[in-house]
Amino acid sequence: MKxxxxxxxxxxxxxxxxxxxxxxxxxxDVIEDTDRGIYISFxxxxxxxxxxxxxxxxxxxxxxxxxxxxxxxxxxxHICYHSDDLEADVSxxxxxxxxxxxxxxxAVAFGGKxxxxxxxxxxxxxxxxx
Length: 130
What we know:
Layout: E1 2-9, H1 13-22, E2 26-27, E3 31-33, E4 38-45, E5 48-55, H2 66-72, E6 75-82, H3 86-95, E7 99-106, E8 114-120, E9 124-129
Parallel strand pairs: 1-5, 6-9
Antiparallel strand pairs: 1-6, 2-4, 3-4, 4-5, 7-8, 8-9
């Protein structure tokens, strides 16, 4: 699997984009993922892609990053890998101790391609996109 992007939890997507642009990142449009309750924007610099992820409603506390933001503040929190065979890669990782947290589901940020989230007690959260 190849690295697709690094996920970065932020409280305000517009302010985070502005700060990252100072560092030389170029961003696409903001994507509203109402299913997950988040705003997403992908930025690139050199060969690196980052995904800014912000809650739609910070006060509601119902997004996948709300709890993390309340404890740690803005922070990188996952590495996403691109998979050519999602089921095989999930099975391989489960056999090696990774735990499936969020099963395969279409993601608006990836044009409906399925993503999964898995967790390892040794390295934390990863995302895999087909």
